UniProtKB/TrEMBL annotation:
The reaction(s) this protein catalyses: Hydrolysis of terminal, non-reducing beta-D-glucosyl residues with release of beta-D-glucose
Family membership noted in the UniProt record: Belongs to the glycosyl hydrolase 3 family.
Keyword RNA-binding: no
Protein species of origin: Mangrovibacterium marinum
EC number, UniProt record: 3.2.1.21
Annotated protein name in UniProt: beta-glucosidase
Length: 756
């Protein structure tokens, strides 16, 4: 009796958020969903909420459940609604036939896969593309990924990953857009548009999945899967905006996160899933758990067994169980025992079926499995697009004495470093169906660019990572054999300039790759110092998936190019920048720390009550390091220079229904054409809760010919200044604001205004 009461108490309007509202059929498709739902048994509805991985590609711990043969039988008996890690026309066709031709109602499967930054044509990792500050580049990357994935039988990608992250120790920082919710929201919406287009039933679009809901990127100490302790204010103001932008862009699904927030697993968090997502945001898609995150409710110690974990998850609003073996075994029992209302199962199944209808799978369940790789995959057009996005993603961190751009002739160039000849690392982590070793290496890119290849010579230096299988490769960094430094030094002595590739192997970042040391690993620092000792004309090309501690390099080396892991066309894109065929315009979307001890470090921090150096020890600082990052959010140089002037505000104060216009003049004061990302930041001086010292509220990427000037205008309204405050509502609060317009988060022309 007590349990029934507890369950009844749970079914308050609060928990039912997002259930009643969606019951009213709105469209013809909704009517079809209702008609199908009405024919389904409870077991068949539960089957739609079950997702298994193919046994041949693992993206999580080995499945504890069915064998492959058992899995195939379960598909035929209608116990499986979705598969992940099934790719290619043949495999998807085989699995789809099992479901459509054997189950009672012939409901098709939906095939999901991690198409994060390309399917076979690989684009820059998302952290790199975000550095372009060009949402159209993110949209193009996602669109081409969708074309190739759909041509290979896939319906759904587990992307975009929109987790805000402030801690470079966390390996998955490579997968998101960095530390800022405003930029993250723009990139999230752009990727949803790219993947989904405006018609999910088209054969070149796929359903997207905003993940990981929520706050996965705030794992304590940057350790993957670790506890998250954040306030509702940080959740609302920093974590949720990219998810909300994805929902407003029409994202079909969300994936919840492994972590607890304040002790409650996100997979079993009705406040996140019902109050906010399905209630306030009126989300009508479905939520898939992350890999066994339902089963892991038990590991968190919030359920004694899988049955209770299943009950908590379905009530909280997790619709589909990925590899958790929790819903199929226990949901019917829970309904029969009156512990779960069948209406919740109906709501979850309705959401899944609606996406399958929108994908056109009921019209032709095999439609996506026909076009496999008919010239739609890894073609020249896609590679050119990958090169274009890659060039835009490169950030010029330093360029003293105009060492860059290099000359295509008349300059002897030493290319040094294991990563320079690495055709695999540029593909990055989360590489879908990329062909291993298929990227254009930095060395190849340079050789392609110069007039005479004899002007280029290569020395590997010490091997960086030995060739091991993917899942252990990041552990095989060479710390024992410095062979190669002497040869590299000997070459450097003879050449005019050295291009030195340093950074990370592709599997040093990504899921499960947190690191306590984010400096140059192996013999890289020794190689750098030895080469620099004999030739000061060093251009370091960083190839990495996270901010690195590069303080020595930043002080000594005249030129540093942040090239991330740029995908299939990496070497060509980097060469385009090195030789000036493309003037770099990228800007960091993550702060680079001076020391790992500063992590987490981010620009949009609170002031604290002791921000100023008082000449005593009694202020917020380190005794052994600066508070400032090595390179701040929004930072990036160009081969030209830009001057900001004439900042003008249309008013000194606005009321809640007025718009403030902010104008600034930007001039290209250099000798080459270039692009600049003009950034607008505000500081709300006082609020009902502490407010960040700066918040990005606008940016515009402009092109200026040498000597050209343009006026850039931003508009600010009360909506732009709204935040989740002490009264737990979203609104702007009257008061004084400062604003800056400039080239990064630390520099800019300052203005002030009042919101009445
Ligand atoms: C992984 C990741 C998630 C991915 C899923 C399926 O554990 O956390 O981002 O989409 O499993 O591969």
């Amino acid at each position: 009796m007590l349990k029934k009461l507890i369950v009844t108490a749970l079914f308050s309007p609060l928990v039912f958020h997002g259930v009643q509202a969606q019951n009213q059929p709105k469209t013809e498709m909704d009517m079809k969903v209702e008609e199908l739902l009405s024919k389904m048994t409870l077991e068949e509805k539960i089957g739609q909420l079950n997702q298994y991985t193919a046994r041949w590609e693992m993206t999580g711990p080995a499945p504890t459940g069915s064998s492959e043969q058992e899995l195939l039988e379960e598909i035929k008996s209608g116990q499986v609604g979705s598969m992940l890690n099934v790719t290619g026309a043949e495999a998807t066709l085989k699995a789809q036939k099992l479901a459509v031709e054997n189950t009672r109602l012939g409901i098709p499967l939906i095939f999901g896969y991690d198409v994060i930054h390309g399917y076979k044509t690989i684009f820059p990792i998302p952290l790199a593309t975000a550095s372009s500050w060009d949402p159209s580049a993110a949209e193009l990357s996602a669109h081409i990924a969708a074309v190739e994935a759909a041509a290979s039988g896939l319906h759904w990608t587990f992307a975009p990953m929109v987790d805000i992250s402030r801690d470079a120790r966390w390996g998955r920082v490579m997968e998101g857009a960095g530390e800022d919710p405003y930029l993250g929201a723009k990139m999230a919406a752009a990727q949803v548009r790219g993947f989904q287009g405006d018609d999910l039933s088209a054969d070149n679009t796929i359903a997207a999945c905003a993940k990981h809901f929520a706050a996965y990127g705030f794992a304590e100490a940057g350790r993957d899967y670790n506890t998250v302790e954040i306030s509702e204010y940080t959740l609302q103001n920093m974590v949720l905006p990219p998810f909300k932008a994805a929902v407003e862009a029409g994202v079909a699904t969300l994936m919840n996160s492994f972590n607890v927030i304040g002790g409650l697993p996100s997979t079993a968090n009705p406040h996140l899933l019902r109050d906010i997502l399905k209630g306030e945001w009126d989300f009508d898609g479905f939520v898939v758990s992350d890999w066994n995150s339902i089963g892991e409710i038990k590991n968190h110690g919030v359920a004694p067994d899988l049955k209770e974990a299943a009950r908590l998850a379905i009530i909280a609003g997790s619709d589909m169980d990925m590899e958790g073996y929790s819903y199929v075994p226990f949901l019917k029992e829970l309904v029969d025992e009156g512990l779960v209302d069948e209406a919740l199962i109906d709501d979850a199944a309705r959401r899944v079926l609606r996406i399958k209808f929108e994908l056109g799978l009921f019209d032709d369940p095999y439609k996506y499995s026909k076009l496999d790789e008919q010239g739609l995959v890894l073609n020249e057009e896609h590679l050119q697009a990958a090169r274009e996005v890659a060039r835009k993603s490169i950030v010029l961190l330093k360029n003293e004495n105009n060492l860059l751009p290099l000359k295509k002739e008349g300059q002897k160039i030493a290319v040094i470093g294991d990563l320079a000849d690495d055709k695999d690392s540029p593909i990055g982590s989360w590489r879908a169906q990329a062909i291993a070793g298929s990227a254009v290496s930095l060395l190849e890119g340079i050789e392609n660019a110069v007039a005479d290849q004899n002007a280029v010579a290569f020395e590997r230096g010490p091997v960086y990572v030995s060739n091991e299988p993917e899942f252990t490769k990041h552990l095989q960094i060479n710390h024992t054999d410095p062979t190669g430094i002497d040869q590299a030094v000997e070459l450097a002595q003879k050449m005019d300039v050295v291009v030195l590739a340093l950074g990370e192997n592709c599997f040093q970042s990504g899921e499960g790759r947190s690191q306590t040391d984010i400096g140059l690993k192996g013999y890289q620092q020794q190689l750098l110092e030895a080469v620099y000792e004999v030739n000061k004309n060093v251009v370091v090309v960083l190839m990495n998936g996270r901010p690195l501690v590069i303080d020595w390099m930043a002080e000594k080396v005249p030129a540093i190019v942040e090239a991330w892991h740029l995908g299939s066309e990496a070497g060509n894109a980097i060469a385009d920048v090195l030789f000036g065929d493309y003037n770099p315009a990228g800007k960091l979307t993550v702060s680079f720390p001076r020391s790992v001890g500063q992590c987490p470090i981010y620009y949009n921090h609170f002031s604290t009550a002791r921000a100023d150096d008082t000449g005593t020890v009694f202020w917020s600082h380190y005794t052994d390091e600066s508070n400032d990052p090595l390179f701040p959010f929004g930072y990036g140089l160009s081969y030209t220079t830009f001057e900001y002037s004439n900042l003008k505000l249309s008013a000194s104060e606005i009321s809640a229904d007025q718009t403030l216009k902010v104008r600034v003049e930007v001039k290209n004061t250099g000798t080459v054409d270039g692009e600049e990302v003009v950034q607008l930041y505000v500081h709300d001086l006082y609020g009902s809760i502490a407010r960040p010292v700066k918040e990005l509220k606008g940016f515009e990427k402009i092109f200026l010919k040498a000597g050209e000037s343009k006026t850039v205008e931003f508009e600010l309204t009360a909506d732009d200044l709204a935040f989740f405050g002490a009264d737990r509502s979203w609104k702007a609060e009257p008061g004084d604001f400062n604003l800056w317009v400039g080239t990064n988060s630390q520099m800019g022309l300052k203005g002030a205004f009042k919101l009445k």
